[in-house]
Amino acid sequence: MSDDLALPDEDAADTAGEPPVIDTSIAHSARVYDYVLGGKDNYQVDREAAEQMLSGWPSLRTSMRENRTFMHRAVRYAAQQGIDQFLDIGTGIPTSPNLHEIAQSVIPSARIVYVDNDPIVFVHAAARLTGTPEGRIAYLQADMHDPATILDSPELTGTLDLDRPVALSLIAVLQFVLDKDKAYELVRGYVDRLAPGSLLTISTVTTNTDPDDATTVTQEYTRRGIPVRDSTKADVEPFFAGLELVEPGITLVHRWNPEPGTEGKVKDSEVAMYAGVGRKP
């Protein structure tokens, strides 16, 4: 079953064997993100929230797309370094190319574990996340705030070998951990369990690049019941304490090793995400 999605058993998803309950009365960050990127897995409430955000800051779509392509570059970099194990926490609704498609295009036998706590992500992951015959993909519905439960889960231990390097991705999720000290502690809970040579990849929200307009987006998220923590570059640095930053260090997502020929096509003021990749010595 190398190309099958390893899912939790039915009892873990729903004890009655019924579809998970999805609240469509309030906006959800994953569905807003899906809509802004052009996806169809969203509801009217998500579209209304996204359009309100876009009206306040039209560059939101550019920023989210640049965040996505940063993830692609970071995953490709990890695979090119020989890392063949990936842990993606806060997966979101699948949008091709997904992390496993990038990783397995470089290393067909790469193994990936996707983690998210959103029922709608679980539903779509089960339908879409298939990979190469040589590799393996597992999906775990769990809360990212509990590193031990995730790292000790049978879905993860049956897919990844934590005694070997793992590329850990926390893409656009840490802004939802409102206490930054708890966010640092959370990331450390994962990194401490990873083998030397592992990579930590992070992106998180900033309004530094366009304080007036970009702030309207974070305010709208909060108004919709999805509070967001804004970060400065100095706020991001402690996530990489004890790690060796990969060049060019912590920077805006579009400036992290951009593809040749793309430099200068996006303005800093159009991007509201800091990013970095660090290696565990």
UniProtKB/TrEMBL annotation:
One of its GO terms (biological process) is methylation. It comes from Actinacidiphila epipremni. Residues 1-20 are annotated as: Disordered. The keyword Transmembrane helix does not apply. Residues 1-13 have a biased composition (Acidic residues). Pfam families: Methyltransf_19. InterPro entries: SAM-dependent_MTases_sf, SAM_dep_MeTrfase_SAV2177_type. The lineage of its organism: Bacteria, Bacillati, Actinomycetota, Actinomycetes, Kitasatosporales. GO terms for molecular function: methyltransferase activity. Keywords: Methyltransferase, Transferase. This is SAM-dependent methyltransferase.
